[in-house]
Amino acid sequence: MALAALRVYEVRVRILSPTIITRRRTENGFLGPLDYIPAQTLRGAVVSSLFMEGLMDRNRMRAEEEVPTVFSSPAYPVIGGARTYPAHPFAMECKVCAEKGEATLVGELDPTKLEDSLAEQRDLELVPVECGSGHRALKPLHPNKFLVLEGGKFSAPKERRGGARAEGGGRASAEKSHSVSVAISRGRAAGIKGMLYHYEFLMPGKEFWATLVLPAELSIPGNGLQLMIGRGVSRGFGRARMHVVGEVTSSFSGTVKVLYALSPTLGASDGNSTYPSTIELRDVARRFGLEAERTVRVSRAYGRTVWVSAGWSMVRGEPRPRVLCRAQGSLLVLEEQVEGEASKALSLLRYTGTVTELNGRKVFGFNHLVPLGCM
Ligand SMILES: [Zn+2]
Predict the structure, then answer these.
(1) Ligand 1 centroid, distance to 137 Cα (angstroms)
(2) What is the mean pLDDT of residues 63-72?
(3) Domain annotation for the chain: domains and CATH numbers
C-alpha cells in the first residue's frame, strides 16, 4: 500500500508558558528535566492539536496510532539564532580553558573526518585526552549539551563560546527555572503533609527547531498551531506555538557510512539491543514514494546507554513503556557503504524515525538517523 505523498516542513516551537518536560517521575514529583522536546512528545502534541483545531477528525486521530502519517523529529534549542544538535560522544570541553574564558571545544568536530575515522575503525584516535593547550581536564558533552553546525563543522553555540560561566549561571539559569509547590487539599484548602512536588521547567520565550512530516492534505495554519506540551497542561503549563519556517525540498544523494542519531536509538522489538542491528528501508521509502527493499546492517554504535520513556498513548490514555536506548547524538557505523536509492531512503529516517512495536504497541520517536556526512 503506497501512502499519500508526505511533505516535510521545518518548524520553530516557541514556549509560551512554563513547560515541564521530564525524563521520569519520582516520589517527590517530576525531576530530571530535559532541555529539548522528545520527538514522541512533540508528535503527540501536534496530532492532539490538529484534532482540537478540527483539522483532523477523531477516527483519523485514532488511526495515527496504528498507521502514522504525521511524524516529528525531536525539537532542539535554537541558540543565538542557530539550530543546535546534541553533542556526539567524541566532543569534549576543556574545563581549564573554560575558566580562563578561552575556546573550550575539543575533539574531532568535522563530520566528514569523524565519518572517515569511524568507517576505518580508527575510533581510538577520536577519543581526546587533552585540549590544544595540554590540559587534561576534559568533560564529555554527549548527550546533553548542544552544538551548532557552522561551515560544515560542529562548534559551540556563540553564547557559550569562551563563556565559561554560561554553563551554571547567566543565560542558562535564565532559561531554566526551578520551583517547589505544595499539593493543596481540596477539603482543607491547606498544604498536604508529605506532598511536596519539585518541578523543573523551561521558561517562556525559549525557542526550538524541529522537522514535521504531514500528508499533503494537512497543513499548519499560516498563523501557527497552538500546542500543549509536557506535564500539567490543564493547569496552564506547556503552552507553545509552532510556526512553519519552510518546506524541506532538497533530497539527499550520496554515500552513507556513518549515521548520526538525532533521536535516541532503539533495537528490534525483542528489546535486546539499544540500537537497531538492521534497518529495513521499505517502510520509510514507501512513505515518500520511493522503492527500496534493502536492509542495511549496523556494525557498531558509539554513544551512551540511557533509559527513555517511550511516551504516552493519546488514545489509550496510558504511558508507553520505558526502554533502554542509545542517547541522541550517538553514532552508528554501517557494515557496508550505502548509496543510490537506498541512501536516499536512509536519509529520510531523520524526519520519520522508525515505528517500532513494543509489547504489541507502536512506539514513535526513535531512530531518527542522519547520514553524518550530509548534516
Ligand atoms: Zn584547555
Answers:
(1) 7
(2) 92
(3) 6-79+173-247 (3.30.70), 256-374 (3.30.70)
